[in-house]
Amino acid sequence: MHMEAQIEDLTMVTEQLIVLMDQETSLLHERRHEDIRGLQVEKAQLAHAYEGHLRGLRERPENIQNVAPSLLDRLKTSNIAFQKATQSNALALKAAMEANNHVLRAVAKAVADSNANGDGYERSGKTSGKSGPGVSVTLDQEF
Prior knowledge:
Blueprint: H1 3-29, H2 37-59, H3 69-116
Helix pairs in contact: 1-2, 1-3
């Protein structure tokens, strides 16, 4: 593949990743986590393509000298936008994970507190006190 075509492809993949990450960031802000699953496969494919194009450019950096400056400017502009989109996306993902962890800790604490009200067992094996039976809870953390 010619260097100019490779840079065009890299720029196009970068721009597609930006759009996808912006969508994901918006969904995270709207707390529409279930809608993100549909983007994950495409995001992984685009990230793989992005890495492949970067690898190709790194293998032949001398060929970049013959590329039109306007094409290189477009690539630089898309890379700057990509860095901003990546930072925003990472912050939104971190915030969503922290919120989920906070909810999980609150649920676990509530369950522990409700089980802590038990008074223990008598020698006969029966529970002592007026507390009800223990509560069993299972949490499935999926994001």
